[in-house]
Specification:
Layout lengths: L2 E4 L3 E5 L5 H8 L6 H4 L6 H18 L5 E7 L5 E8 L8 E8 L8 H15 L5 E7 L3 H9 L3 E6 L15 E7 H5 L2
Parallel strand pairs: 5-6
Antiparallel strand pairs: 1-2, 2-3, 3-4, 4-5, 6-8, 7-8
Amino acid sequence: MDTYLETERLVLRRFTADDADILIELDSDPAVMRYLSGGVPTEPEVVRERYLPNILAGYEKWGGDLGLFAAHEKDGGAFIGWFILRPEPEGPLDEVELGYRLRQAAWGRGYATEGSRGLLGKAFTKLGVRMVWAETMTVNAGSRNIMEKLGMTHTETIPTPPDMETIEGSEHGGVRYEITKEQWEQR
């Protein structure tokens, strides 16, 4: 396994061209997709033909340092989902997005906080990142709670993207949280 990051209970690795099935399974769970598509699964061909090639291209673009990373339990190796640490498509490399998508079986076990905390550490100590941001729907209390546990600060309310306006709670918009290297060092 090409290990990108290890935490106490998790191993994060780069995706490979053989990982379409685990991504399709993750994106086919209506509960996982609740705040992303209103519970509508991602079509398998979209994962195979667009998402996975874009993930792999990201490693090329950012030298393997940034992108989307598969997360597995250290004990047993079960795939639990993915984490993201990457800039906007044409954004500066020292401002990156933090995020995750986890299988229901991994919910409530502290994995989102643990993996995100590990990524923040790597971003600020090894990758030259100055600021990390994350966004979610205002009504996604679980993700907002994790962002706050990480020491991230709510910086703005953002409008709901047009393709998400039919999702439950979309009328409340979204939220953006940020943490700078200086804020992280002071924790």
